[in-house]
Design a protein that fits this description.
Elements lengths: L1 H20 L3 H26 L1 E7 L3 E3 L3 E10 L7 E10 L5 E9 L5 E8 L4 E13 L6 E4 L6 E7 L21 E8 L1 E10 L11 H7 L3 E9 L3 E6 L4 H20 L4 E7 L2 E7 L5 H9 L23 E5 L5 H10 L4 E7 L13 E6 L4 H4 L6
């Protein structure tokens, strides 16, 4: 608009000099026409400018870090004549990291909808909120403009999930399911006679007590009962949602990779996290349990520095044999709470490179494993759960 105003000022100056140097009807009419032209342009453009509407759509509501999310911008005017130039400011805000980015678009609004296909990618995990932060409309000459208000609900939310790396950590016997749980595996059989896992054909060596006589008589073949496998949670992941964007991405990628590995083998584990709203978490047994957890986790927001990660007397699950703390900065208070609640459990701290060690780490019997964001599978090589 500044360029158009400068050009108009030069034209007005030239017509004024023409009127001064060549007094007459022609120079007067040219000067007056140049003088009232902006007002005439504004009056002609105003109905179309007032009728401009912009909408934001997206085909999907989730993506992964680094992958593009297809967006569609649509703009039109309710007036039958086309409007002037329209400038859009698209804003992307990550509620987990607090970062904001924006992109500008310039186009002409017509009575028929004008659509722009655009792909936008986020470099960091979190909940992404897309919205049109500014909609500015111009008259035909580009000399006048005003900002149109957007409705508060004109926004789109998408989740950006972390990247799952192919990792194969070692499993200690304490990680495997045992007979102390009150839940049962859906993919593995066990030796608990209180629940039936399934039925199969009789094989030589099967116990006669396992034969399901009634169903065998109805089906005409010998069927054997497979007993269920009770499971209990022995592994705890505690995630501290604090740190910069790169550190959070590193921790979320590690947590997603470890949890996906365990869920694929139906090894029970619990994930707890501390965000801006307090402590949250869920027990994970199958891969179906992960989407809801990630939705809540990515919407949680970062923990405020004034909030402690763990408070004395914090409620923690019992029966844990291995607690894994994922954090960007080591906190002696959190290690103390974990050790008091789980005196016999293994305690491992996973932290990005650059995290300063604390002298109390050995006092709490904790192991420290540093993570390289560029080489996460290599960083976890030899890690035992």
């Amino acid at each position: 608009m500044a360029k158009n105003r400068l050009e108009y000022a030069l034209i007005l100056l030239c017509t004024a000099l023409f009127y001064i140097c060549f007094v007459g009807y022609l120079s007067f009419y040219v000067f007056m026409l140049t003088l009232i032209l902006p007002l005439f342009s504004l009056l002609c453009s105003l109905p179309a400018m007032l009728g401009v509407r912009a909408e934001l759509h997206a085909a999907v509501d989730s993506t992964h870090k680094g992958e593009s999310l297809p967006l569609r911008l649509q703009i039109r005017t309710s007036f039958f004549l086309p409007g002037g130039r329209v400038k859009l400011q698209l804003q992307l805000r990550n509620t987990l990291t607090g970062e904001e980015t924006g992109e500008s678009f310039s186009l002409t609004a017509g009575h028929a909808p004008v659509r722009i296909e655009h792909r936008l990618a986020s470099e960091h995990c979190g909940r992404l909120i897309f919205r049109i932060s500014e909609l500015r409309v111009y008259d035909y000459l580009g000399l006048f403009s005003f900002r149109k208000r957007q409705k508060r609900g004109d926004s789109f939310t998408a989740l950006c999930y972390p990247k799952v790396h192919p990792i194969f950590p070692g499993l200690l016997p304490s990680t495997l399911p045992d007979l102390d749980g009150d839940r049962y595996s859906t993919v593995r059989s066990g030796d608990d006679p209180s629940e039936i896992f399934g039925l199969r054909d009789y094989r030589e060596g099967d116990r006669l007590s396992r034969i399901h006589w009634k169903l065998s008589e109805k089906s005409g073949k010998t069927l054997v009962k497979e007993l269920s496998l009770p499971i209990s949670t022995r592994l705890l992941f505690l995630l501290d949602l604090n740190g910069d964007s790169g550190e959070l991405d590193c921790l979320l990628d590690v947590l997603a990779s470890l949890s996906a590995f365990l869920a694929a083998q139906e090894l029970p584990h619990r994930i707890q996290y501390r965000g801006s709203g307090g402590m949250g978490g869920a027990d994970i047994l199958r891969e179906d349990d992960l989407p809801l957890l990630w939705k809540e986790l990515l919407c949680a927001g970062r923990r405020k520095p004034s909030q402690p990660l763990l408070e004395p007397g914090q409620a923690l699950p019992s029966g844990i044999t291995h607690a894994v703390l994922l954090c960007s900065q080591l906190q002696p208070e959190a290690l103390s709470v974990l050790r008091d609640a789980m005196p016999s459990a293994r305690l491992t701290v996973l932290a990005p490179q650059g995290c300063l060690p604390i002298p109390e780490l050995n006092v709490f019997g904790a192991e420290l494993l540093r993570l390289d964001p560029e080489k996460l599978p290599e960083s976890l090589s030899g890690f035992m759960l």
